[in-house]
Structures are given as structure tokens and as C-alpha cells.
Amino acid sequence: MSGTLRGLAVRFKVGVARKEPGGWLDNGNGGSNSSPSTPVSRLFRPGSIRISSPSIHADQGHGAERPPRRGGKLESLEVIRGIGALLVLLSHATVRISDSGMYGAPVLANVFHFGHRGVELFFSLSAFVICLIHSRDVGHANKVAIFAFRRFWRVYPLYWAVMLPLIPVLFAVPGMGFGYEREPLVLLQSLTLLPFAPVDKLPVLPVAWTLMYEILFYGAFAVVIAWPRAGWPLIIGWVALFILKEATFPQIDNAPLQFLTKPVVACFLTGLAAFRWRGRLPLGVSVALGTVGTILFAVTGVVQSLTGADIPYSPALFGLYSGAMILALFDLERAGRLSLPRWLIALGGISYTLYLVHWPALSLFQKLFIMAGATAWLNELLAFGLFILGSVLAAIAVHLLLERKLLSSRRGMETRLLGHS
User: What is the pTM of this model?
Assistant: First the structure.
């Protein structure tokens, strides 16, 4: 186990990197700038990257790094968020357009049906980002409250703002939803993002099932911050539990165990591995791994979409591909060798809003289309494009009207509650 801990626990120094509101990367300035003083620090390897404002310097790896161009935001990570959110949107829009109440036939041969694999990309990226911006806090138990508050503030307020209005609609319109959303345990699960309901019952906002795993990972990482000797084995044991369950009782009828051991949990480990190896491989090797991962991600996804093939442990495989993509893009940006489309960077900045908003937006668009009889006179490809555009515009509106204000108010709220700024 100690060897595994040495592989995962990495000590590096991170300076203050302030960010503009938006995006999932929260480069807050909390935490200690010094390395852990506990005996656990002996498990940590020497630092490989220092992020500071306004420039970045490398202690090792590919040489001197160049600064991010957007006030401390790493554009490679923003783009990955944008890609993940867009993939999920394309997948759900495909399902809506192909519904029997709409056009009743696959749009674009269902090629984007695999877009739900953007979830695996998000999980892998989440582990990478949390390690990147909070590893300096590891071993400092007094930083747990700051970490927990920042994760809470990033996830819950915007989520509640999107989810809570759906509850009265579900009660007022019996035909809405899947039929079980009014159950007390489902409502409690939806409010808390904790697994109170059976695993086959999604929250009121269905896409929020992924947030439940994010919260679980945040809890495990909070233990890493407070007590690394217990936290790292906890995360490794979580993934090991999934492997053990799949190898022994893959169909076990135990709700908590089913929730804890979904194959997607392996994606967190791939994100940790990408973080562990960032800047440590020759750039050519990193890019080669990322290229292979990208090709396999796309080809495997398209094949699954077109054939309906059931590939065993697909979430874990897509998590592996995602980790390789994250590693390559991050290393390319560190080396100053990455040029990215501005629209995709901007899309990454609203990725969380888009992820939350697109589901109710698509549902509304579908109902309006059916009521207007639009399927009789509008081509399905044009309808597909309108669904995508409408969802993005809705996300932009919520981002501008709400998300930016929430993010900008975090620092003041943190100061009032925790006495920290």
C-alpha cells in the first residue's frame, strides 16, 4: 500500500492564481503555501509545477512553462469541460429528437448517442482539478472547512436554483417526469445529493446523479486533506471495492454497494493518475497517449452508437481514455504548444450551467414542438440544431444572470462564515 501511496501523493507548491468567474476550475487562494509538516510529507515526491499569478514556472518536466492567457485559468481544462458538456447535450438532444412523440427515427444515425460518455470525461477531470488546486492543503486539517465550503458553494446554490422550480411542476403536472420523483426519499436525495433513494431512481433533475458521485469524491478528498494516511487508502479502497464486486458478485442486490461500485468510480482514479504523471513524461509521449486516447474515445463511442454494442466496463475504459486526453492537453499548454478555439474555451466557462440547464430546456423544447406540430413542417436536422442552440442560449442566460453573481459572491461569503479571504 505504501508504494501506491507514493504514486498518488504528490507534493507541489502552488501560488495564488486568481480566476475570473466562470468554469469549474476554482483556483482560490486558500490553503497553505508551505508543504505539509506532518510525517506524511515524506510520502510526497518533489513538486513538479508551481502555479502563480501572473506567470507559471516549472521545477521539472518540459522546461519553463508559459502562463495561462486568462487570468490564471488553464484553457486546456476549460476546453475539456466544454467538450464534456457538449457531448452530453448532443446525446440528450439525440434522444429527444428521436423520441416516438417527435420524429421517431434516429437523427444522424444516432452517431451522437455516445455523448453521455462526457460524464466519464467530467469525472476524470474533476479528480485532476481537485488535486491540482487543493494538493497544497493536504496534511493541513484546518483547510478542510475552506475546501468543503468552496465545493459546496460551487455545486449546490446553482443546482438548487435549477432543480427546485421543477418540483412544483412535477406535482402540478402528473404526466411529467418518470413517475417516482414525488416519493419522499427521491425528493430528499434531490435536495441533498446524497443516495437516499434506490440506485434506479434518479433525482428530480436526472443529470444530478453525477453530482452525487462528485460529492462522494469531495468527501473522500476532504479526508485526504485532514488525514492523508487514511484518505489515500480510502480512495484507492473505493476503486478496489468496485473491482472486487465486479469480480465476485457483479449482480449483487445491495443498494448502497451498487451505488458505491458503479464503474464510473474508476474515472476518478484515472484523473488522479493523470495528475500524478503531468509534466513527468516527455512531451511526445504525453501527446501520443492523448492522441491514442482521443481516437479510442471517439471510435469506441461511435461504434457503440451505431451498433448498440455492449462493451464491458465501458465507463472505466472511457475514463482511461479521458485521463490520457487530460494529461496531453495539460502538458501541451504547460509547454506553450497549445492553441485552442475561443468559442470552446467560452463553452467550458459555462459548462456547469449548461450541464444543469440543458435537461429541462430540452424537455420544454420537445413539448413546445409537439404542441405546435412542428415535426410536420420542420426537418429533424434543423430541429436538432435548434435544440442545441436553444440549450446553449439558455445556459448563457443563466450564467450571466445567476452563476457569475454566485461565483463573485463566494469570497465575501467565505470571509463572513470562515473568517478567510
Answer: 0.82
